[in-house]
Amino acid sequence: MESGSQNGSISVLVADDHEMVLEMIEMFLSQASEFEVKTARTLDEALEAIAENGPFDVVLLDLVMPGMNGVTGIHKAIEANDGKPVAIITGNPSNRHVMDIVEAGVAGIILKTTHMRTLANALRFIAAGEQYIPRELTIDRELAEKSENNPLSPKEMQVLSYLVEGMANKDIGEAMRLAEPTVKMHVRSICTKLGAKNRTQAVLRSKDLGIA
After folding, report:
1. Residue 14: its pLDDT value, please?
2. Prediction pTM value
3. Could you give all domains of the chain from N- to C-terminal order, each with its CATH number?
4. Apex CA 94: angle with CA 90 and CA 97, to 5°?
């Protein structure tokens, strides 16, 4: 296979042991003429595909498929792909996992809940040499690192970040894909944990504590 940079297309290897996820991604990307897609179901299969057809413009690996062993598999894929981008597709990683993955040198993290059009755009972005990390993961990571004694959960920190921006519960719900009652529940929990009577006090209190 010629590199996508040579023939105008983007060569992508998608490796995931979940058949439905793999088929859905392959089907969607194959409908776009700019993508050339190959698939694998384990890290070993992915490494074989890279050896036979690569390097690929983007390699997208499931974080928990057979053979990965955490960041060990990431390092193997990066080395095999001859310096071209390797990205991770995963469910809902913790802040610690996000930092470990990024430190391993990935070119991006794509959530399995990501809309297919967004996934395709993310692959284009990564193939162009940029790093793609969803906004919600970036928020969690940055805010969680601000204070080791932070009493709020990562989800509450994300809600808090929107409160700081002055967003209404309805808008926060749309941004986070949560029902408005769920957002209200998070706001109440934030106020309780920060000893605040309302959202305005919660924002002020969070700034005093250095977590917003």
Report:
1. 97
2. 0.65
3. 4-133 (3.40.50.2300), 138-209 (1.10.10.10)
4. 70
